[in-house]
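ok so i was messing around last nite and threw this chain in just to see what happens. nothing serious, just curious
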Amino acid sequence: MVNRTAPSFEDRVGQVLLEGGFITDQQLEQAKLASGDTGTGLLDTLVSSGMLAQETLVTVLSFQLRIPVVDLRHVQVDPEGVRLVPEEYARQYGVLPTGFDTDGSLRVATRMPNDFQLSAELSSITGRQTKFVLAIGGRLEDLIDKVYSSTPARPAGAPGGDVDIGGGAATGTAILAPLEASAGSGAFGQDMAQLPAVQAVDMITLQAVKGHASDIHMVPNSDSSKVLFRLDGELREMVVLPLTLHESMVSRIKVQAGMDISENRRPQDGSFSLLFGERKAEFRVSTVGTTWGEMMVIRVLDHSGDLLSLEALGLDSMALHVWRQLLALPYGMVLVSGPTGSGKTTTLYASVTELVNNRGNIMAVEDPIEYRLEGINQIQVNRAAGIDFPTGLRSIMRLDPDIILVGEIRDEETAKTAVNAALTGHLVLASIHSNDAASSVVRLLDLGVEPFLAATGVVGALAQRLVRKVDASCEVITEPSATEAMAYEQEMQEPLGEFWAGQGCNFCNGTGFSGRTGVFEVMAVDEHIRKLIASGSSGQEIRNQAIAGGMLPLRRAGMIKAQDRTTTLGEVFRRVFFID
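result:
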């Protein structure tokens, strides 16, 4: 974004606040430094750091400087106004049309309300008089991203915004908008019931990628079909469609994914890719016949962003230190456990990426390969060709590997082969389904691995959950429920402190949450734990020994994240707690 006069304007306001005695010289300097580090505006930094009350700022701006103010967290944005300003222009100059005044002029939120040249340019572009309002209450760039990704697609044939869908026609992009009740319109801003299946599919897939959805659900009912997106782990209904369009869209996606369109009773799997600009996403498709028709779920794998580092996953400093010690071992099995959708594959990829440069030949067998990584030789499970996890592992053993990544241990043969690989001088990283780190070892025993082999082969285990993060734009102090307070005091053995939650705003779609982070426990297998595994002890006995040895358990790790304002106690209850 090109900032023309924003710094000098904010400096001017800061000087007015200083001269009026609202802030001190030291506070102004601190806010300037913090603003430069975070990319947040100077005025927002003064408010968020508690140096200045927002009511005071608004009063000074409105009455002393005669500058109208808009709070980005709660402003209602008119899509008709947004359509008047090209997206690239809005991003380049940091302007966001919010709506119209009674005289027909266009209200525009900006960080530089005294840039008269920019105002004149906007008037020429939009054909309307423009009135600037100063944007406070959050990062304007973030809301520009969200609003323009919520603007309905351009009509077919409109210039710009074209994308290339693998095997499909070019269409305009479609992105997230607030959910409406009208059938066929919903979150897509136009009546999809009137669109051809090709355009409807393109719109939904692009909407999912732009909205950072992890899954698309297309679910038929008795007289209609629902399209739902999984956003930050929660299913959100996006649009209701006629059954006839649902069937046409399912057929269209099957063609793209290389599936049999004549078969609608037995389950099928397939995949296709989507490319627009330099951004590529892959879609993994699964279908199954239900009472009212064929249900389809599409996993969205967006390759536009880099893989997360171990630090970015949410590991605390002690857990991260132990995990890196385990990854540095020359051989042994390291397990990553958790329920479906808890981020196990992301953790495995982040872990093995750290080892690419100095650990020799890294081989992986996966079903499916979610991300193609440079420096790692990845094998795709293909049962039709006779390649499953056991056969893939056996073939890897003949290819002189140093490190082996196993996408999932789900049967006896895979478990035994992986443990044998760990015992013969290889570092094996594998995911497995279990409640916690200790029970992941017990799960190996349940799959038929001999206790003495598991005790020797397994060197460590990590268990994880994903929790939603409190949106920093709208966080407020909140009072935990009686149940949450009692559980916190029982787990932490300390009185209840101050907790925060999001009250909902434009930046978080009214949910109070933005993004997700991991909650982890990391268990290193020491001599005491090794003896317990060899004797066939229960998961609870192994867990108690690990905690006695210094392991931070999942529940406590979740409570700590609620304590430091990362998430809420309610999220910890919903995502982390389980029956022992």
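not much to say yet. The chain has three domains: 6-138, 164-302, 310-467+516-552.
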